[in-house]
Specification:
The protein is of the alpha/beta class. About 50% of the residues lie in helices and about 15% in strands.
């Protein structure tokens, strides 16, 4: 069981004074245990055996001055001391307090009878002082550790007030930003940030409820006037709950990484451009073979992309849809000229060959990795809602949405364009045909979504 008793050592050579103080403690009950000795010699002997919570000592004793109790002793813990005297003076009081005493009491009947209260107050003051000292020591130790790490880190370590001004910055700022540390003290970090990146920092400093570590990339101005990319990891430290004190940050130069990322993005864009130009070259080659559908590919590609946006496809998905629309008839490259360019109706055998162009598209393109997603339209755009299409006779929603969508656009353009064997149909007739075949050949929802686009494109 924990002993919560307060142990007090009273050093008093006057028996009457000692008895008066004892009675005062007795009247307070058993909360405190008082041990009385009359000389410094007896006090030293007691301290070798026990460590009291508090010492109350007369200033002048038969064998010496009790001020020696104020000096730190390596063989015992530091114990708080109250000094009493019958001959008080302001000078003595100042000297005693400076030497480390918690209190300086001038003896009187009132002060000695009030000694239990004085002792309780002194012990509480001592606890507060010890806790403050412990916190200061801990803070100093952490500060020393922080500076040791900061001074030897290749990253720029910094401390800032809540408005972003530098309170401390490590020597790495010379290599990273070109400044000496003392040149940055007091400088707001926002003044070094590129105008295009400053908004994010302002938001962080003024409104972001930092609870965890935050990492941001931004451009900072070097002393030579150029901008470099920094990656900064920062965290707010609180002095009290809900009150910001400062934030600490670690920054590193990521300019090379950002440059490499930009070069990679440019290379990727160049590669995508090369892909698209290759596809466009294939489409032009097909147009040269099939003169009667020249321009058809560009028109259906444009309208398919518009329809895809309305139907909620992402821009990344629309990239593949565009490629699929451009290549929808690429399989016809495998159809003989005498069939592809025949002016009259095709025979059954010729239709059998013509209807193989989706399969031919698959065989031509399936080994090209970047066209995997685009293959949906070339392979399935002749499938029909009721299962009457080709090559696989798919029906309903088993037909991919991209292909159901393109099938409507493809037929719309075919009926809206002149062909050698017929004139184009009026727009109302084309719309009426699409509505009649909705739910039979075409997806009804796609048709109803597409018709407003036709009216908008054609001006109503």
């Amino acid at each position: 069981m924990m002993d919560n008793t307060i142990h007090i050592l009273l050093i008093e050579d006057d028996p009457a004074h000692a008895e008066l103080i004892r009675r005062a403690f007795d009247d307070r009950g058993d909360k405190s245990k008082l041990t009385v000795v009359h000389t410094l010699t007896d006090a030293r002997a007691h301290l070798r055996e026990a460590a009291p919570t508090l010492i109350i000592a007369d200033w002048r004793l038969p064998d010496g001055d009790s001020s020696e109790l104020l000096r730190r002793q390596e063989d015992r813990p530091v114990i708080p001391v109250i000094i009493m005297t019958s001959y008080g003076s302001e000078r003595n009081a100042v000297n005693v307090i400076k030497s480390g005493a918690l209190d300086y009491i001038v003896k009187s009947s009132e002060s000695m009878m009030d000694m239990p209260h004085i002792a309780e107050r002194a012990i509480e003051q001592w606890r507060i002082r010890q806790e403050k000292e412990r916190m200061q020591n801990t803070l100093a130790e952490r500060e020393a550790q922080f500076r040791l790490l900061a001074e030897n880190s290749s990253d720029m370590i910094s401390k800032h007030d809540v408005m972003g001004a530098f309170l401390y910055v490590s020597p790495a700022c010379r290599a990273i930003l070109g400044y000496q540390p003392d040149e940055l003290i007091g400088v707001p970090i926002a003044s070094l940030i590129h105008p295009d990146d400053a908004r994010e920092w302002v938001d962080l400093l003024t409104g972001y409820p930092w609870q965890d570590t935050v990492t941001i990339d931004y451009r900072a101005r070097h002393k030579n006037g150029t901008y470099i990319w920094l990656e900064t990891t920062a965290r707010i430290f609180f002095d009290e709950p809900s009150r910001q004190r400062e934030f600490q940050a670690s920054s590193r130069n990521i300019t090379e990484r950002k440059t490499a990322e930009a070069q990679l993005q440019r290379a990727h864009a160049d590669l995508q451009d090369a892909y698209d130009k290759t596809i466009e070259g294939w489409v032009r080659a097909l147009d040269l073979r099939d003169k009667e559908t020249e321009g058809h590919t560009q028109r259906v590609t444009h309208m398919t992309m518009e329809l895809a946006r309305v139907l909620g496809f992402s821009e990344e998905e629309i990239v593949h849809i565009r490629r699929g629309a451009l290549l929808h008839d690429i399989g016809k490259m495998g159809i003989p000229d005498e069939i592809l360019q025949k002016a009259g109706p095709l025979t059954d055998d010729e239709w059998f060959i013509m209807r193989r162009h989706p399969e031919m598209a698959y065989h031509m393109l399936s080994q090209i990795q970047y066209l995997k997603e685009a293959l949906i339209i070339p392979c399935y755009h002749h499938e029909r809602w009721n299962g009457s299409g080709y090559p696989n006779k798919l029906a309903g929603e088993t037909i991919p949405l991209q292909a159901r969508m393109f099938a409507v656009v493809d037929v719309w353009d075919a009926l809206s364009s002149d062909r050698p064997y017929r004139k184009k149909l009026p727009q109302p007739d084309v719309i009426e045909y699409l509505r009649q075949e909705a739910g039979r050949l075409f997806d009804s929802q796609v048709v109803e979504t597409f018709i407003p686009l036709i009216l908008r494109e054609k001006g109503g």
